[in-house]
Task: inverse folding
């Protein structure tokens, strides 16, 4: 159950990587020159189709971490503007925001989303965040599915509330909703338009089972207008003519946000096959199956007196991450014990760590039963 960490490449992805690798090894310059732009744009188009936007709205990155760094470093923030985030967000968001604040003079404010996760509701979470937006708030920085607790935020409801706040604001003061989407990306049935955020960044090497070292940033039109690239792109041919003529390439865009540099090209090129695999199964079917398996784990854990289930039971407030504690054991001890049973669980470096099982469409109900048996044996 490693979907929340790193993918084992499924056959179509592995075969595409091998095909490109063979051609690159046989004739690197000619194969690269003849294919790089078209294959990266094909991956952008496939990513766009997956969440219902044109490929032009999608930037390619190496990971969620790179996406967070590019977005938060790239936002044109003014001195004194505020970035609102939460105590429950991950290191990657907090550190990107801290660095963005140091560079721009913007301030980061962290709020706590709940005192007790057992009492959270979609409406309560949305109100808790949006009630804290003030006149100086320019960015709301959130995580779709928390990797500490497995809590899923109601991003569409938060986005709708932010839209009504923005109705009275000018372009330069609009609140931008930016989301680390990695733990919903590849297991939820929702498009970018329905999510309603300005930026969603995610690695593709987790729930999507894409090539290792790939990721995407989806941006709204006003999102792209508000951000500048950090790393020069190789994907936009006009970037070179602007460089040579000394002209300004203009506003930010997804293509300009896609970092250049030579890389392990066979990986981003094979990203298309990962999206096609998910499309062939169906986004809704993947989401249904993930929720079914996660529910099986939650039901099993909830019946064990020595276990405290942390993740909310409702699929409306959770996705594929199931976090839990075992009485008398640290999260790391639980994970190590499960490893002895050859069950892959994990723990992340949060102040309050929990053990996590993360079923995906690669898993079967009998594997869940086996993991539950191993946890039962820890009583
Ligand atoms: C919420 C969250 N964001 C980002 C990451 C890092 O993702 P990536 O490997 O795609 O940079 C993780 C965990 O690995 C995570 O839990």
Result:
């Amino acid at each position: 159950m490693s979907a929340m960490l790193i993918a084992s490449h499924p056959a179509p992805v592995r075969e595409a990587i091998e095909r490109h690798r063979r051609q690159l090894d046989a004739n690197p310059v000619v194969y690269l020159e003849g294919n790089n732009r078209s294959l990266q744009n094909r991956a952008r188009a496939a990513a766009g189709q997956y969440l219902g936007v044109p490929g032009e709205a999608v930037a390619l990155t190496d990971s969620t971490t790179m996406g967070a760094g590019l977005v938060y470093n790239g936002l044109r923030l003014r001195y004194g503007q505020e970035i609102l985030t939460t105590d429950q967000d991950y290191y990657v968001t907090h550190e990107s925001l801290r660095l963005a604040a140091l560079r721009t003079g913007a301030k980061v404010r962290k709020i706590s989303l709940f005192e007790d996760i057992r009492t959270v509701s979609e409406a309560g979470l949305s109100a808790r965040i949006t009630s804290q937006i003030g006149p100086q708030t320019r960015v709301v920085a959130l995580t779709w599915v928390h990797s500490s607790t497995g809590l899923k935020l109601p991003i569409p409801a938060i986005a709708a509330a932010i839209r009504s706040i923005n109705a009275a604001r000018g372009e330069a003061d609009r609140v931008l909703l930016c989301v680390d989407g990695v733990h919903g990306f590849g297991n939820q049935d929702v498009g970018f338009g329905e999510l309603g955020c300005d930026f969603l960044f995610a690695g593709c090497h987790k729930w999507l089972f894409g090539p290792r070292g790939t990721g995407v940033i989806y941006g709204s039109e006003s999102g792209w207008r508000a951000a500048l690239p950090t790393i020069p792109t190789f994907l936009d041919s006009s970037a070179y003519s602007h460089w040579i003529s000394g002209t300004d390439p203009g506003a930010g865009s997804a293509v300009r946000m896609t970092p250049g540099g030579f890389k392990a090209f066979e990986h981003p090129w094979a990203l298309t096959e990962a999206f096609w695999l998910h499309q062939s199964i169906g986004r809704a079917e993947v989401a249904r199956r993930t929720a079914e398996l996660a529910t099986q784990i939650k039901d099993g854990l909830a019946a064990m007196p020595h276990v405290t289930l942390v993740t909310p039971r409702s699929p409306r407030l959770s996705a594929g991450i199931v976090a839990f504690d075992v009485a008398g054991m640290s999260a790391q001890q639980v994970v190590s014990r499960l490893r002895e049973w050859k069950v892959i669980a994990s723990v992340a470096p949060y102040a309050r760590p929990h053990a996590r099982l993360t079923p995906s469409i690669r898993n079967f109900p009998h594997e869940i039963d086996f993991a539950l048996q191993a946890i039962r044996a820890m009583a």
Residues 283-376 form a domain with the Aspartate Aminotransferase, domain 1 fold (CATH 3.90.1150.10). The chain has 15 helices and ten strands. The chain has a mean pLDDT of 97. Strands lie at 58-61, 82-86, 107-111, 137-143, 176-180, 199-203, 215-219, 307-309, 322-326, 355-357.
